[in-house]
Amino acid sequence: MNIKITGSGSYVPTEKVTNLDFARHNFLNEDGTQFPQPNEIIAQKFLEITGIEERRYVTDDLLSSDIAAIAAQRAIDDAKIDPETLDYIILAHNFGDVKKGAIQSDILPSLASRVKHSLKIKNPKCVAYDILFGCPGWVEGVIQAQAFIKAGMAKKCLVIGAETLSRVVDMHDRDSMIYSDGAGATIIEATEEEGGVLAHESATFTYDEAYYLFFGNSYDKQLDPDVRYIKMHGRKIYEFSLSNVPKAMAACLDKSGVPIEKVKKILIHQANEKMDEAIIQRFFRLYKQTPPDGVMPMSIHKLGNSSVATIPTLYDLLVKNKLEKHELNKGDIIMFASVGAGMNINAFVYQM
Fold it and tell me: When you count CB atoms within 10 A of the terminal residue's CB, does the N or C end of the chain come out lower?
């Protein structure tokens, strides 16, 4: 028995927000003082560091659970399965459903339960639950799904990553330009086909790192101090990621027994182009090699950082031949890897 992704789907929001759209924003320092550089220079430096030209936001009428359900239905259709046969629905997110203009997150009932309701699944033995694992949430959901299947507790799971970060960003913080919205979903099944998940690695670092990402006040000190927004210590996250993610990826690859020369693609969390490039460089350097051209497909340039949705969306675009100069074929070895709030790191090696 092997455990494979048999279907995928994603939802890319329709609202395009370019870097130029931030020209009218009043960016402030953490202490509330005026940022000295004009927005044009801020936007240019931002593009050079992150690679993000534009990002996608949901329309005002949509919530995280709505776009999760859309991506889920597309994955179900792609896998050609009866949703009533699903044993688990695992939904990774970070902030629940946040309505446009609201100051409160809504996670009751769980988003997974809402998706099950939207899909009109009647089977009570289809268990639906959420996981909070930062940006690596979808990868962790896949790891959990394969554990359920290996243990004989399930045969078929739906794993979703969905987020609407546009609803929780501080528009006076330059970091708000990184974040975006989106959803991706996959069907994970037991199969007699060759390949599937070959090895995984997962870890949580909290001793010094727990609050590298956190909920904090707006940089505009005139705003309600009880309203919180997503904040991060960018430099600390960058240094942590470069030090720890390549080693975790190497541990995962070594566990799989696959030589690095056979890795066709690495689907890494779309957090920051320069950071991702540096992680891949360090990963290959551990094997005294340099990354081959085209090993790291990217979607961040046009879609931004949608947290848990970046990797499943990237995978869906890749297998549906929607990324130029990238393709996957049966038998190809790929690696999934992510890092995010927790601080959490995970990875798995997979054969198509």
Answer: N
